[in-house]
Amino acid sequence: MEVEHYRREREQEFQSKQQAAMGSQGNLSAEVEQATRRQVQGMQSSQQRNRERVLAQLLGMVCDVRPQVHPNYRIAA
């Protein structure tokens, strides 16, 4: 009887410690997920802000054609 009581007592202690450890782990997971969401939102807003400027820059580079002879080109005689 006494052994059974001691075992139940220890089991309850273990359960409470396990719950405390898992609870803090769950909180950490929620914090990491929230930080990740904030970072993704920041990247999306940055992409929206810079999209037009980058597209204009790319189109400018692609459409600005300047025909030139390469410096290493040698006329064959």
UniProtKB/TrEMBL annotation:
Biased composition regions of type Basic and acidic residues, renumbered to the chain: 1-14
Protein name: V-type proton ATPase subunit G
An example Gene Ontology biological process: synaptic vesicle lumen acidification
Record family assignment: Belongs to the V-ATPase G subunit family.
Entry GO terms, CC: synaptic vesicle membrane; vacuolar proton-transporting V-type ATPase, V1 domain
Superkingdom classification of source: Eukaryota
Sorted UniProt keywords: Hydrogen ion transport, Ion transport, Transport
